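P.,

For your records, the input lines for the assembly:
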Amino acid sequence: MARKIGIITFPGSLDDADAARAVRLAGGTPVPLWHADRDLRGVSAVILPGGFSYGDYLRCGAIAAHSPLMAELIPAARAGLPVLGICNGFQILCEAHLLPGALTRNERLRFINREVTIKIENCGTPWTLNLAENEEVTLVLKSGEGAYVADAATIKALESAGRVVARYAGGAPNGSLDSIAGIANEAGNVVGLMPHPEHAVEALTGAGTGGRGFFESIMTAVFTA
Amino acid sequence: MTDTVENARATPAMRQPHAALGLTDEEYERIASHLGRRPTESELAIYSVMWSEHCSYKSSRKYLRQFGEKAPPSAALLAGIGQNAGVVDIGQGYAVTFKIESHNHPSYVEPFQGAATGVGGIVRDILAMGARPVAILDSLRFGPADAPDTRRVLPGVVAGISFYGNCLGLPNIGGELVFDPCYSGNPLVNALCVGVMRHSDLKLAKAKGPGNRVVLFGSPTGPDGIGGASVLASASFGAGSESAKRPNVQVGDPFMEKLLIECCLELYAEGVVVAIGDLGAAGIACATTELAAAGGTGMAVTLDHVPLRDRGLGPAAILMSESQERMMAIAEPASLPRFMEICAKWDVPATVIGEVTSTGTLDITWQGVKVAELPPQTAAEGPLYDRPARRPASQDKLRLDLPHLPAAPGGDQLRADLLALTGSPAAAAKNWVTEQYDRYVRGNTVLAMPHDAGVLRIDEESFLGIAIATDGNGRYCLLDPYAGTQLALSEAYRNVAVTGAVPLAVTNCLNFGSPEDPAVMWQFAESVRGLADACQALGVPVTGGNVSFYNQTGTQAIHPTPVVGVLGVLADVRRRLPSGFAAPGETIMLLGNTRAEFGGSLWTFFCQGHLGGLPPEADLPGEQRLASVLAGSAEAGLLSSAHDLSDGGLAIALAESCLSGNAGCSVVLPGEAFTMLFSESAARAIVSVRTGAESRFADLCADRGVPAVVLGTTGGDELDVSGQFTVPLSELRAVHERTLPELFD
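Structure tokens returned:
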């Protein structure tokens, strides 16, 4: 069977081509999904790529969370479909209440583009299966609103259930609470990640190849069962 | 009451505010003679913006012709000057289009929006050629780094470029950041965009085929920047004028521009576009006259169909509005439904506002009456001036005012100077700026800042790619605008060459003071002549560019600042050379000749506060030979790094290669230490040679006639200059990286 991974393009999505390349390099078949369609096209997992969906108007991800395709995706994700939101995709997942908390302006109120090293803390999700606990991987952080925040009870719940998927090693450059770089939902199938693994899949053009593990993990998770 | 064509015929003596719109009495008379009557209010608006310096190049065209006349034969040029941007063949069926443009005046008035819309404008130029925009570069110049106004302007400009470029999903892969008191009150914000297409996708802005529809699509039209181009970019800043100009700056919406990009690319792919033009300075007035003039046809437009954000706008304001994120296309009636369908898919509002005619005139109606009827060529071409140009008497004094060089300074002094220059705003790390730009998006960025040129992969299978760099040096150009401009081209050419790429074509943004000052006009004439001659000598044609005059406050003009962009091609980007030392134990070699050349140098400027004498000699044959060695050795895999020598000479180049590669080095200077370290002789580079390739590389240099001398070895954690001084990399890095955060955080 075709190893189909869906990648949603919203108006203003920017890293959709990069996510598709990363899926291809991991041996999958990227399937473009259009925000206005109500059709997940039979994919086995979905990636919400980075960008500025709807120009970040209102709040980052707020409008995209209400697009027609999200009305299909939300119940599918609640039923266990693996979903990865990267950067703006993470913001959309929070706005869609598939993940708790929110992403707010960086501490210094400036856009940050730099390589960051994150430490993997939960390799039980379908997106981190092939990674090792405490493994450090270098990805690219590029965002203006990347500081993760949530109320104390939510943070406590995330921490105690091991739902913090990754943390910035050596401290968050953007002011994220507890240096959180990525989280998962309770079931673990929905993951939000602020740094970009799809920009670390080729040594020639990215921050090394440390991001490949996320895409190889999903291939393992959904195609070897 | 609306001023109609009929009314203009009936009231020939009515007085009109042509002077307030920037037209001279003589220009006004010329318009009347073109029309055979006085212009209507709308026609006056059209002519005033089209004949502004910014749109008509009326003072510069006389000189710019040399770029065509002296152009070296080049098989690579698919479209040249006169189109929105030049188009260059890079092989395998790919064409690249690139252009640099200024947004200096708006960026001073409103730094964030001024710079943001500067990016938006140049991206639409590239899009209008049929290409997908794939990267941007920005060349920025400000007053002294510690001046209060620089703290106002710089963060806003950088945030504006970051906001717009990041939101469009275009990697920012290079540029410049320069500080000099001459740019106080006149910052230079030049943005370059590169686009890629297949040869067959080239679009030319010509309205053809009577009956074809004129479609306006993108953002609605509002009262933005009305008269911005004519009034703002064509007049000097003076006391008390700022507040009156503030509302003229446009506001950018990069989200709409991103939709426009994807929408246009789908329109092109579907073959439903006959011709297309972007709406930049002078808005609908410019797009209609230029499309009609280039097509040699007529056009009938009904302004009532233009979607407005402000219902109060009259016909003249609608024509002149510079609302951003708008395009104008010509489409056949049969393909119009598909055209509209694609626009709807991308949520881009699109409206038919008129059609192509065979009348030969541009006919504009509003509320049922004709408000303009003019031959489009007369508006599109504009007057041509031969303004007085005179070498200023002060030029001789400047050239005789030689720098005072220290007599045999000791190692401690050389070390102190190296650290001072490394931490000077000119040479300090630019991370504070570049970390605000997305360099990774689209996944094809092979090199970006702090490397000498940006390198992009164009084809993911064959690894065909391009390199691009921009450079300019106002100090050199003040001392000698002819040589200084040749040095700007030389440096951009060299910056492309050190990546291993073969330079192919040139774009330029010519930033000068007022053309009404004969001394400025002389600088401009010398600069253009220098660039045209050097392009001929180096075999790289100018494909397009932009002129920005009136960069002055009162009578004080900026240094003449031509910014030159060079595009090169790399057959395989995996063979590109980075600027940093890549591996320990490799031989470092210095290529080129070093003479004692300090006029306009960073050392004299920063350590002595002096500017005088002569700039370094431009050595065009030397540049060509150097480029040939670099391309040949990159292809043969002989080198692991290469870095050009420019501001701050060998001293800064060594420091940068150490810091960028995070590797130390030990060198022995092959000559008098001060000159070897800080002279800025052209046509030089340092390279690190792969172990085992030393003799092949030496043979290649000898074969191509490039002087090459062994400097030392890479490795360790210090920059060690034998017999002179040693600096630990940690100390060098701290000095290099702290300057901009201390100034702007």
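Two observations worth noting. The radius of gyration of chain A is 16 Å. DSSP finds five helices and eleven strands in chain A.

Regards
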